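Continuing the series of single-chain predictions for the mutant panel. This is the parent chain; the variants come on the following pages.
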Amino acid sequence: MVGEDATKISVFFTFKLLFDKNKSKNMPTVLKFIDGEFVESESNDYDAKLELIPDGHNGFAKLYFSDGASLITRRTATRQAHSICATGFVLKNGVRVGRGYELEILDDDDVHDALRKEAHKYNKS
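Parent structure:
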């Protein structure tokens, strides 16, 4: 009887683990840019938010910025979001999401055009 109970418990946890992995592959994942990196967090205090939305074989990612995000923070978050869309992000449950996703950057219109230009150009002599 003890062996049967142990087997039932083992099968239950194996099923639960597989179910959790499959659920996270099909559900949108939200990563937040906190202290210079994207993390899984429920915090409302973040500089950027990356939504990873699966869509069949691939998916797409939407990058949003908070109102107070600096230009450096925006560029760093954008660079890391591109990296996540290229290689993926490993969640706490061990599932990799985001690999091969197409990135869409939203709220990027708030940056003034003067800040987008290079400050100096140097000539090689």
